[in-house]
Amino acid sequence: MSKFWSRTAREAKPYIPGEQPNESQIIKLNTNENPYPPSPNTLEAMKEVVNEGLRKYPTPTVDSLKRVIANREGVNSEQVFVGNGSDEVLAFAFQAFFEANEAIKFPSVTYSFYPVYANLYGIPYQAVTLNDDFTIDVEAMKQSIGGVIFPNPNAPTGLALRLYQVEEILQGNPNNVVIVDEAYVEFGAESAVELVEQYPNLLVTKTLSKSHALAGIRVGYAIGQEDLIEGLERIKNSFNSYTINSVSLAGAETALSDDAYYRETLERVINTRVWFKQSLEELGFEVLDSKANFLFVKPTGVEAEWLYLTLKERGFYIRYFDKPEVRGYVRISIGTDEEMERLLNEISNLLNSDC
Ligand SMILES: Cc1ncc(COP(=O)(O)O)c(C=O)c1O
Protein backbone atom coordinates (compact mmCIF):
# COMPACT_ATOMS: atom_id res chain seq x y z
CA MET A 1 0.00 0.00 0.00
CA SER A 2 1.36 3.44 -0.90
CA LYS A 3 0.00 6.85 -0.09
CA PHE A 4 0.41 7.63 -3.80
CA TRP A 5 -2.04 4.99 -4.95
CA SER A 6 -5.39 6.08 -6.34
CA ARG A 7 -8.53 4.58 -4.92
CA THR A 8 -8.68 2.30 -7.98
CA ALA A 9 -5.18 0.95 -7.30
CA ARG A 10 -5.93 0.55 -3.61
CA GLU A 11 -9.13 -1.35 -4.17
CA ALA A 12 -7.98 -3.53 -7.10
CA LYS A 13 -7.90 -7.30 -6.47
CA PRO A 14 -5.54 -8.40 -9.24
CA TYR A 15 -5.73 -11.74 -11.01
CA ILE A 16 -3.03 -14.20 -10.00
CA PRO A 17 -1.76 -16.02 -13.10
CA GLY A 18 -0.41 -19.57 -13.01
CA GLU A 19 3.30 -19.86 -12.30
CA GLN A 20 5.73 -19.57 -15.23
CA PRO A 21 8.85 -21.40 -14.00
CA ASN A 22 12.02 -20.99 -16.07
CA GLU A 23 13.67 -24.36 -15.52
CA SER A 24 13.43 -26.40 -18.69
CA GLN A 25 13.17 -29.77 -16.87
CA ILE A 26 9.79 -28.81 -15.42
CA ILE A 27 6.74 -30.39 -17.00
CA LYS A 28 4.42 -27.43 -17.13
CA LEU A 29 0.74 -28.36 -17.17
CA ASN A 30 -0.68 -25.43 -15.23
CA THR A 31 -1.71 -22.71 -17.70
CA ASN A 32 -3.32 -24.60 -20.58
CA GLU A 33 -0.65 -23.77 -23.11
CA ASN A 34 -0.41 -25.83 -26.29
CA PRO A 35 2.43 -28.39 -26.01
CA TYR A 36 3.26 -28.16 -29.72
CA PRO A 37 5.10 -25.26 -31.35
CA PRO A 38 3.49 -22.71 -33.69
CA SER A 39 3.72 -23.70 -37.37
CA PRO A 40 7.03 -23.09 -39.19
CA ASN A 41 5.24 -20.61 -41.50
CA THR A 42 4.02 -18.65 -38.48
CA LEU A 43 7.53 -18.39 -37.04
CA GLU A 44 8.97 -17.46 -40.43
CA ALA A 45 6.39 -14.68 -40.92
CA MET A 46 7.30 -13.17 -37.57
CA LYS A 47 11.04 -13.33 -38.24
CA GLU A 48 10.52 -11.57 -41.57
CA VAL A 49 9.06 -8.50 -39.95
CA VAL A 50 11.87 -8.18 -37.42
CA ASN A 51 13.74 -5.59 -39.51
CA GLU A 52 14.13 -1.84 -39.84
CA GLY A 53 10.39 -1.56 -40.49
CA LEU A 54 9.88 -1.92 -36.73
CA ARG A 55 10.76 1.76 -36.36
CA LYS A 56 7.23 2.47 -37.58
CA TYR A 57 4.03 2.05 -35.57
CA PRO A 58 1.91 -0.92 -36.57
CA THR A 59 -1.40 -0.35 -38.31
CA PRO A 60 -3.90 0.86 -35.70
CA THR A 61 -6.89 -0.62 -37.55
CA VAL A 62 -5.40 -4.10 -38.16
CA ASP A 63 -7.46 -4.36 -41.36
CA SER A 64 -5.64 -7.23 -42.98
CA LEU A 65 -5.75 -9.41 -39.83
CA LYS A 66 -9.44 -8.60 -39.52
CA ARG A 67 -9.98 -9.80 -43.09
CA VAL A 68 -8.22 -13.10 -42.37
CA ILE A 69 -10.32 -13.62 -39.22
CA ALA A 70 -13.54 -12.63 -41.02
CA ASN A 71 -12.78 -15.10 -43.77
CA ARG A 72 -12.11 -17.89 -41.28
CA GLU A 73 -15.21 -17.19 -39.19
CA GLY A 74 -17.60 -16.57 -42.12
CA VAL A 75 -18.43 -12.99 -41.08
CA ASN A 76 -17.47 -9.59 -42.48
CA SER A 77 -14.55 -7.48 -41.27
CA GLU A 78 -16.82 -4.99 -39.52
CA GLN A 79 -17.92 -7.84 -37.25
CA VAL A 80 -14.37 -8.46 -35.99
CA PHE A 81 -12.47 -6.82 -33.14
CA VAL A 82 -8.83 -7.72 -32.37
CA GLY A 83 -7.12 -7.31 -28.99
CA ASN A 84 -3.86 -7.94 -27.19
CA GLY A 85 -4.92 -11.38 -25.99
CA SER A 86 -8.56 -12.20 -25.34
CA ASP A 87 -8.03 -10.92 -21.79
CA GLU A 88 -7.79 -7.43 -23.24
CA VAL A 89 -10.83 -8.02 -25.45
CA LEU A 90 -12.76 -9.09 -22.34
CA ALA A 91 -11.55 -6.09 -20.34
CA PHE A 92 -12.75 -3.75 -23.12
CA ALA A 93 -16.05 -5.64 -23.38
CA PHE A 94 -16.73 -5.19 -19.65
CA GLN A 95 -16.26 -1.44 -20.13
CA ALA A 96 -18.19 -1.25 -23.38
CA PHE A 97 -21.28 -3.26 -22.42
CA PHE A 98 -21.67 -3.50 -18.64
CA GLU A 99 -22.76 -0.76 -16.24
CA ALA A 100 -21.57 0.13 -12.75
CA ASN A 101 -25.04 -0.18 -11.19
CA GLU A 102 -26.36 -3.28 -12.98
CA ALA A 103 -25.32 -6.73 -11.76
CA ILE A 104 -23.99 -9.11 -14.39
CA LYS A 105 -24.10 -12.88 -14.12
CA PHE A 106 -21.37 -15.46 -14.52
CA PRO A 107 -20.97 -19.02 -13.20
CA SER A 108 -19.71 -19.40 -9.63
CA VAL A 109 -16.90 -21.65 -10.86
CA THR A 110 -15.34 -20.02 -13.89
CA TYR A 111 -12.42 -18.01 -15.26
CA SER A 112 -11.20 -16.00 -12.29
CA PHE A 113 -10.50 -12.88 -14.33
CA TYR A 114 -14.24 -12.04 -14.56
CA PRO A 115 -14.63 -10.93 -10.92
CA VAL A 116 -11.32 -9.05 -11.26
CA TYR A 117 -12.62 -6.94 -14.16
CA ALA A 118 -15.98 -6.48 -12.45
CA ASN A 119 -14.21 -5.23 -9.36
CA LEU A 120 -11.90 -2.94 -11.33
CA TYR A 121 -14.79 -1.27 -13.16
CA GLY A 122 -17.15 -1.26 -10.18
CA ILE A 123 -19.62 -3.62 -11.87
CA PRO A 124 -21.67 -5.68 -9.40
CA TYR A 125 -22.06 -9.38 -10.17
CA GLN A 126 -24.00 -12.47 -9.25
CA ALA A 127 -21.98 -15.68 -9.25
CA VAL A 128 -24.51 -18.28 -10.43
CA THR A 129 -24.10 -21.63 -8.64
CA LEU A 130 -23.35 -24.55 -10.97
CA ASN A 131 -25.56 -27.62 -11.16
CA ASP A 132 -24.44 -30.55 -8.98
CA ASP A 133 -22.69 -32.13 -11.96
CA PHE A 134 -20.65 -28.92 -12.48
CA THR A 135 -22.56 -27.91 -15.63
CA ILE A 136 -23.68 -24.30 -16.02
CA ASP A 137 -27.26 -23.73 -14.84
CA VAL A 138 -28.74 -22.41 -18.09
CA GLU A 139 -32.06 -21.37 -16.53
CA ALA A 140 -30.31 -19.36 -13.81
CA MET A 141 -28.22 -17.49 -16.38
CA LYS A 142 -31.36 -15.93 -17.87
CA GLN A 143 -32.86 -12.56 -16.95
CA SER A 144 -29.69 -10.85 -15.86
CA ILE A 145 -29.91 -7.19 -14.95
CA GLY A 146 -26.64 -6.09 -16.51
CA GLY A 147 -25.38 -8.84 -18.84
CA VAL A 148 -23.83 -12.29 -18.88
CA ILE A 149 -20.41 -13.80 -19.44
CA PHE A 150 -19.31 -17.43 -19.42
CA PRO A 151 -16.62 -19.51 -21.09
CA ASN A 152 -17.68 -22.31 -23.40
CA PRO A 153 -16.18 -24.77 -22.62
CA ASN A 154 -16.14 -23.51 -19.05
CA ALA A 155 -12.84 -23.20 -17.20
CA PRO A 156 -11.64 -24.89 -15.09
CA THR A 157 -14.25 -27.65 -15.51
CA GLY A 158 -13.81 -28.12 -19.27
CA LEU A 159 -17.54 -28.85 -19.58
CA ALA A 160 -19.27 -27.36 -22.63
CA LEU A 161 -22.81 -26.18 -23.22
CA ARG A 162 -24.52 -27.28 -26.42
CA LEU A 163 -25.32 -24.56 -28.95
CA TYR A 164 -29.05 -24.71 -28.22
CA GLN A 165 -28.29 -24.01 -24.56
CA VAL A 166 -26.18 -20.97 -25.46
CA GLU A 167 -29.11 -19.85 -27.60
CA GLU A 168 -31.46 -20.22 -24.62
CA ILE A 169 -29.22 -17.93 -22.59
CA LEU A 170 -29.22 -15.39 -25.44
CA GLN A 171 -33.00 -15.52 -25.67
CA GLY A 172 -33.28 -15.19 -21.90
CA ASN A 173 -31.28 -11.93 -21.97
CA PRO A 174 -32.67 -10.04 -24.98
CA ASN A 175 -31.78 -6.60 -23.62
CA ASN A 176 -28.28 -7.35 -22.40
CA VAL A 177 -25.01 -8.42 -23.93
CA VAL A 178 -24.06 -12.07 -23.51
CA ILE A 179 -20.32 -12.71 -23.89
CA VAL A 180 -19.40 -16.27 -24.80
CA ASP A 181 -15.69 -16.72 -24.09
CA GLU A 182 -14.53 -19.43 -26.51
CA ALA A 183 -10.87 -19.55 -25.47
CA TYR A 184 -10.97 -23.38 -25.67
CA VAL A 185 -13.70 -23.99 -28.24
CA GLU A 186 -11.39 -25.49 -30.89
CA PHE A 187 -10.67 -28.49 -28.66
CA GLY A 188 -14.12 -29.94 -29.22
CA ALA A 189 -17.04 -27.61 -28.34
CA GLU A 190 -19.59 -25.94 -30.62
CA SER A 191 -18.89 -22.30 -31.51
CA ALA A 192 -21.64 -19.70 -31.17
CA VAL A 193 -20.23 -17.57 -34.01
CA GLU A 194 -22.96 -18.88 -36.32
CA LEU A 195 -25.55 -17.21 -34.03
CA VAL A 196 -24.06 -13.72 -34.39
CA GLU A 197 -26.18 -12.83 -37.41
CA GLN A 198 -29.35 -13.65 -35.51
CA TYR A 199 -28.56 -12.23 -32.04
CA PRO A 200 -27.58 -8.57 -31.70
CA ASN A 201 -26.74 -9.19 -28.02
CA LEU A 202 -24.08 -11.86 -28.70
CA LEU A 203 -20.34 -11.28 -28.49
CA VAL A 204 -18.07 -14.30 -29.00
CA THR A 205 -14.40 -14.05 -27.98
CA LYS A 206 -11.58 -16.32 -29.14
CA THR A 207 -7.82 -16.48 -28.72
CA LEU A 208 -4.76 -17.73 -30.55
CA SER A 209 -3.12 -18.55 -27.21
CA LYS A 210 -4.37 -22.13 -26.92
CA SER A 211 -5.50 -23.56 -30.28
CA HIS A 212 -2.71 -21.82 -32.23
CA ALA A 213 0.09 -22.24 -29.67
CA LEU A 214 0.67 -18.49 -29.58
CA ALA A 215 0.12 -17.45 -25.97
CA GLY A 216 3.39 -15.51 -26.22
CA ILE A 217 2.24 -13.10 -28.94
CA ARG A 218 -1.00 -12.08 -27.18
CA VAL A 219 -3.68 -12.03 -29.87
CA GLY A 220 -7.37 -12.56 -29.25
CA TYR A 221 -10.48 -11.41 -31.06
CA ALA A 222 -14.21 -10.91 -30.78
CA ILE A 223 -17.03 -11.52 -33.25
CA GLY A 224 -20.33 -9.68 -32.95
CA GLN A 225 -22.69 -7.44 -34.89
CA GLU A 226 -21.23 -4.17 -36.18
CA ASP A 227 -22.52 -1.92 -33.40
CA LEU A 228 -21.05 -4.13 -30.65
CA ILE A 229 -17.69 -4.09 -32.47
CA GLU A 230 -17.90 -0.31 -32.78
CA GLY A 231 -18.46 -0.11 -29.01
CA LEU A 232 -15.26 -2.11 -28.44
CA GLU A 233 -13.32 0.10 -30.89
CA ARG A 234 -14.48 3.19 -29.00
CA ILE A 235 -13.08 1.83 -25.73
CA LYS A 236 -9.85 0.61 -27.36
CA ASN A 237 -9.23 3.92 -29.08
CA SER A 238 -9.76 5.73 -25.79
CA PHE A 239 -7.04 3.58 -24.25
CA ASN A 240 -4.31 2.69 -26.77
CA SER A 241 -4.39 2.98 -30.57
CA TYR A 242 -1.75 0.31 -31.19
CA THR A 243 -2.66 -2.67 -29.07
CA ILE A 244 -1.35 -5.24 -31.57
CA ASN A 245 2.36 -5.07 -32.34
CA SER A 246 3.76 -5.68 -35.83
CA VAL A 247 5.33 -9.04 -34.99
CA SER A 248 2.11 -10.38 -33.45
CA LEU A 249 0.15 -9.14 -36.45
CA ALA A 250 2.35 -11.07 -38.87
CA GLY A 251 2.25 -14.20 -36.70
CA ALA A 252 -1.50 -14.13 -36.20
CA GLU A 253 -2.28 -13.60 -39.87
CA THR A 254 -0.09 -16.50 -40.93
CA ALA A 255 -1.25 -18.82 -38.16
CA LEU A 256 -4.90 -18.28 -39.03
CA SER A 257 -4.14 -19.06 -42.68
CA ASP A 258 -2.21 -22.23 -41.82
CA ASP A 259 -5.21 -24.37 -40.93
CA ALA A 260 -3.93 -27.84 -41.81
CA TYR A 261 -1.00 -27.60 -39.38
CA TYR A 262 -3.08 -26.41 -36.45
CA ARG A 263 -5.88 -28.87 -37.12
CA GLU A 264 -3.37 -31.66 -36.77
CA THR A 265 -1.99 -30.38 -33.45
CA LEU A 266 -5.54 -29.94 -32.12
CA GLU A 267 -6.24 -33.57 -33.02
CA ARG A 268 -3.12 -34.67 -31.18
CA VAL A 269 -4.09 -32.78 -28.03
CA ILE A 270 -7.62 -34.22 -28.16
CA ASN A 271 -6.31 -37.78 -28.62
CA THR A 272 -3.95 -37.36 -25.67
CA ARG A 273 -6.79 -36.00 -23.55
CA VAL A 274 -8.89 -39.07 -24.31
CA TRP A 275 -6.31 -41.68 -23.25
CA PHE A 276 -5.07 -39.66 -20.30
CA LYS A 277 -8.63 -39.22 -18.96
CA GLN A 278 -9.21 -42.94 -19.25
CA SER A 279 -5.92 -43.72 -17.49
CA LEU A 280 -6.79 -41.43 -14.57
CA GLU A 281 -10.20 -43.09 -14.31
CA GLU A 282 -8.48 -46.45 -14.17
CA LEU A 283 -6.60 -45.14 -11.11
CA GLY A 284 -9.99 -44.42 -9.53
CA PHE A 285 -9.92 -40.66 -10.13
CA GLU A 286 -13.08 -38.80 -11.10
CA VAL A 287 -12.56 -36.82 -14.32
CA LEU A 288 -15.05 -34.41 -15.87
CA ASP A 289 -15.88 -34.78 -19.55
CA SER A 290 -13.66 -31.99 -20.88
CA LYS A 291 -14.00 -30.41 -24.30
CA ALA A 292 -10.92 -28.27 -23.64
CA ASN A 293 -7.14 -28.81 -23.52
CA PHE A 294 -7.21 -29.60 -19.81
CA LEU A 295 -8.90 -32.00 -17.43
CA PHE A 296 -10.60 -31.21 -14.13
CA VAL A 297 -9.79 -34.10 -11.86
CA LYS A 298 -10.88 -35.28 -8.42
CA PRO A 299 -8.19 -37.58 -7.05
CA THR A 300 -9.16 -40.49 -4.80
CA GLY A 301 -6.99 -41.73 -1.99
CA VAL A 302 -5.05 -38.44 -1.73
CA GLU A 303 -6.05 -34.82 -1.17
CA ALA A 304 -6.08 -32.58 -4.25
CA GLU A 305 -3.91 -29.94 -2.60
CA TRP A 306 -1.40 -32.54 -1.45
CA LEU A 307 -1.22 -33.96 -4.98
CA TYR A 308 -0.63 -30.48 -6.42
CA LEU A 309 2.13 -29.64 -3.92
CA THR A 310 3.83 -33.03 -4.12
CA LEU A 311 3.85 -33.06 -7.90
CA LYS A 312 5.29 -29.55 -7.87
CA GLU A 313 8.18 -30.69 -5.66
CA ARG A 314 8.83 -33.39 -8.24
CA GLY A 315 8.84 -31.01 -11.20
CA PHE A 316 5.24 -31.34 -12.45
CA TYR A 317 3.24 -28.11 -12.35
CA ILE A 318 -0.55 -28.49 -12.36
CA ARG A 319 -3.19 -26.08 -11.00
CA TYR A 320 -5.03 -26.12 -7.70
CA PHE A 321 -7.72 -23.57 -6.82
CA ASP A 322 -8.11 -22.88 -3.13
CA LYS A 323 -11.85 -22.15 -3.35
CA PRO A 324 -14.60 -23.93 -1.42
CA GLU A 325 -16.48 -25.39 -4.41
CA VAL A 326 -13.44 -26.92 -6.11
CA ARG A 327 -11.04 -27.72 -3.28
CA GLY A 328 -11.26 -31.44 -4.04
CA TYR A 329 -10.06 -30.94 -7.63
CA VAL A 330 -6.94 -30.19 -9.63
CA ARG A 331 -6.75 -28.93 -13.21
CA ILE A 332 -4.23 -30.59 -15.50
CA SER A 333 -3.37 -29.13 -18.91
CA ILE A 334 -2.85 -31.62 -21.72
CA GLY A 335 0.79 -31.85 -22.77
CA THR A 336 2.53 -34.18 -25.21
CA ASP A 337 1.98 -37.95 -24.93
CA GLU A 338 5.41 -38.28 -23.38
CA GLU A 339 4.72 -35.61 -20.74
CA MET A 340 1.40 -37.18 -19.82
CA GLU A 341 2.95 -40.65 -19.60
CA ARG A 342 5.59 -39.32 -17.21
CA LEU A 343 2.93 -37.57 -15.12
CA LEU A 344 0.81 -40.70 -15.01
CA ASN A 345 3.82 -42.73 -13.84
CA GLU A 346 4.57 -40.21 -11.13
CA ILE A 347 0.95 -40.22 -9.92
CA SER A 348 0.83 -44.05 -9.91
CA ASN A 349 4.07 -44.13 -7.90
CA LEU A 350 2.69 -41.63 -5.40
CA LEU A 351 -0.49 -43.64 -4.96
CA ASN A 352 1.49 -46.85 -4.45
CA SER A 353 4.02 -45.41 -1.98
CA ASP A 354 3.41 -44.85 1.70
CA CYS A 355 3.68 -41.11 1.41
C1 LIG B 1 -11.55 -18.91 -20.11
C2 LIG B 1 -10.42 -18.07 -20.56
N1 LIG B 1 -10.68 -16.95 -21.24
C3 LIG B 1 -9.69 -16.14 -21.66
C4 LIG B 1 -8.38 -16.43 -21.41
C5 LIG B 1 -7.34 -15.45 -21.84
O1 LIG B 1 -6.54 -15.88 -22.85
P1 LIG B 1 -5.60 -14.91 -23.65
O2 LIG B 1 -5.58 -13.57 -22.96
O3 LIG B 1 -4.29 -15.57 -23.65
O4 LIG B 1 -6.20 -14.78 -25.01
C6 LIG B 1 -8.04 -17.59 -20.70
C7 LIG B 1 -6.64 -17.90 -20.40
O5 LIG B 1 -6.26 -18.81 -19.74
C8 LIG B 1 -9.09 -18.42 -20.25
O6 LIG B 1 -8.84 -19.53 -19.54
UniProtKB/TrEMBL annotation:
List modified residues, type N6-(pyridoxal phosphate)lysine. Answer: 210
In this record, what's one Pfam family? Aminotran_1_2
Q: Give the record's family classification.
A: Belongs to the class-II pyridoxal-phosphate-dependent aminotransferase family. Histidinol-phosphate aminotransferase subfamily.
Q: Write out the catalysed reaction.
A: L-histidinol phosphate + 2-oxoglutarate = 3-(imidazol-4-yl)-2-oxopropyl phosphate + L-glutamate
Keywords associated with the record:
Amino-acid biosynthesis, Aminotransferase, Histidine biosynthesis, Pyridoxal phosphate, Transferase
Pathway assignment reads:
Amino-acid biosynthesis; L-histidine biosynthesis; L-histidine from 5-phospho-alpha-D-ribose 1-diphosphate: step 7/9
Name the EC number(s). Answer: 2.6.1.9
Q: Which cofactor does it need?
A: pyridoxal 5'-phosphate
Extract one GO BP annotation from the record. Answer: L-histidine biosynthetic process
An example of a GO molecular function for this protein is: pyridoxal phosphate binding
Assembly, in brief, is: Homodimer.
Using the UniProt annotation, give all residue ranges assigned to the region (Disordered): 1-21
Which intervals hold domain Aminotransferase class I/classII large?
25-347
* Name assigned to this protein: Histidinol-phosphate aminotransferase
